[in-house]
Design brief:
Elements lengths: L1 H28 L5 E2 L5 E5 L3 E3 L8 E22 L4 E18 L3 H4 L4 E15 L9 E13 L8 E11 L7 E5 L2 E5 L2 E17 L3 E2 L25 H11 L2 E14 L2 E8 L5 E9 L1 E19 L9 E22 L1 E19 L5 H5 L1 H5 L4 E2 L21 H21 L2 H12 L1
Parallel strand pairs: 1-19, 6-16
Antiparallel strand pairs: 2-8, 3-8, 4-5, 5-18, 6-7, 8-15, 9-10, 10-18, 11-18, 12-17, 13-16, 14-15, 16-17
Length: 440
């Protein structure tokens, strides 16, 4: 029985080896890396702003492109075949999205070249006319001032932008879509990806303030409180009673007030639209943009007066004082902060594109080959899966047998039957049965 068993083992080994080699060879050739179209293949470029302005010396309106997404990928398969050039044209449709941000970076200096956050104001609040011993006035006049800080700002350049940003839409980075591929014994030449832009639509337009300059200059206190602090108008000591009257009763000088809130100096403008041009893939983003300007103020009061003062007690002439005019109180305010609300405009786009791939096989295709799903659908041309916003190569779920799966199955059944017949003729089954009966 050794000879039949050895023969049977050799036969099994030969069949297994041939089948394994065939499976490995065809399995590698039937799983090429298909090119995947992703949002990163989009080319969205915004140019420099074109339009009127009052920006002074430098442009302070900008654009940013981002947020590319792939929403849909539809493989339409083979749409034409040219037997003269032996080229197959495949087509797919994609739906994409992207965003454009337009924003301003206006600052106080660009609006007012003379802008100052520490403007010193000196304001006279008291004039004292001293009488000499002969009652002559004007021989010794003393003026008193209060100094306080404020913000010096006047809108000279409004930074109103009315114009457009040129926008171009296309496809970039087609690496992986072209070259030579060998699949299942066929060689295909794939020159590269082509496309047509069907439509680009503006889905939504929004805007918001981004406040680059937000009350940076606030709460500047005066250098003095504005009280009358005469030590001596001459070299003689001043009459304290007069000073007490001026400071306590007349309240001549500066009185700090409360914050008065925000005051609009310039209203904001924010508008946006979208239009195509006569050039394919070229568009215009129309914008109207102007930042909002507000100022913060603090109130104050100023009590002013003009007075005479005779401080001599000479020859029975009593010392005294009086007012030429006043005290008179006025109320005013000073700018202590400026807020430029720069704007951000947000454009959300959605577009439809047709993709084309020309494939040239290494031989003239027959009618039956062209009708096969492998050629008709063209799933091997590009990866039609959609996994989230950015698709990746689809997982290979093929068995490695390709179109010969059914043939291998039939051959396997025939081999099993043939082996069973050979084993019966050699008496293998009888031999095994006897062995089993002996053990019992």
């Amino acid at each position: 029985m050794k000879k039949p068993i050895l023969l049977l083992f050799s036969l099994f080994l030969l069949i297994f080896s041939c089948s394994f080699v065939s499976l490995i060879d065809f399995g590698v050739a039937s799983t090429p890396a298909r090119a995947t179209f992703t949002a990163q293949h989009l080319s969205i470029v915004a140019g420099d702003f074109q339009g009127s302005n009052t920006w002074g010396t430098s442009q302070q309106i900008h654009s940013y492109v981002g947020g590319e997404d792939l929403y849909a990928f539809n493989n339409l398969g083979m749409i034409s075949y040219d037997p003269e050039t032996n080229k197959i044209l495949y087509k797919a449709q994609v739906e994409v999205g992207f965003e454009v941000i337009v924003y301003s970076t206006v600052n106080p200096t660009s609006m007012d070249p003379g802008f100052s956050a520490n403007k010193l104001v000196s304001e006279e609040f008291l004039r004292v006319d001293k009488y000499d011993v002969n009652w002559n006035s004007g021989t010794n006049v003393k003026k008193y001032y209060v100094n306080y800080y404020g913000v010096d700002f006047d809108i000279i350049n409004t930074h109103f932008y009315s114009g457009y940003f040129p926008l171009t839409v296309g496809i970039k980075n087609t690496i992986g879509f072209g070259g030579i591929q060998e699949i299942g014994g066929y060689t295909f030449e794939m020159p590269g990806l082509e496309y047509d832009i069907l439509d680009i639509k503006l889905m939504s337009f929004q805007y918001d303030h981004i406040g680059t300059w937000n009350n940076e200059y606030i709460n500047y206190n005066p250098t003095t409180e504005g009280r009358l602090t005469i030590e001596s108008v001459t070299q003689e000591t001043a009459d304290s009673a007069v000073m007490n009257y001026v400071n306590s009763r007349a309240k001549i000088g500066w009185q700090e007030g409360a914050l008065l809130g925000s005051f609009t100096q310039q209203n904001y403008i924010a508008s946006g639209s979208f239009s195509p041009t006569s050039t394919p893939g070229a568009y215009r983003i129309q914008v109207g943009l102007q930042p909002e300007v507000t100022v913060a103020k603090r109130g104050y009061s100023m009590t002013k007066a003009s007075m005479w003062w005779d401080y001599h007690d000479f020859l029975g002439s009593p010392a005294g004082m009086g007012f030429y005019w006043g005290p008179s109180t006025s109320y005013n305010s000073r700018v202590i902060g400026i807020n430029i609300n720069n704007l951000m405009e947000h454009f959300d786009f959605r577009g439809s594109l047709d993709l084309y791939m020309t494939v040239e096989p290494d031989h003239i295709l027959s009618t039956s080959e062209l009708q096969e799903p492998f050629f008709a659908m063209g799933d091997w041309v590009w990866d039609a899966s959609l996994l989230g916003d950015v698709p990746t190569l689809a997982e290979d779920t093929t068995s490695g047998l390709g179109d010969f799966t059914f043939i291998y199955l039939i051959l396997g059944v025939i081999l099993v039957v043939a082996i069973a017949i050979i084993m019966a003729k050699l008496g293998v089954f009888s031999y095994i049965s006897r062995k089993i009966n002996k053990k019992r």
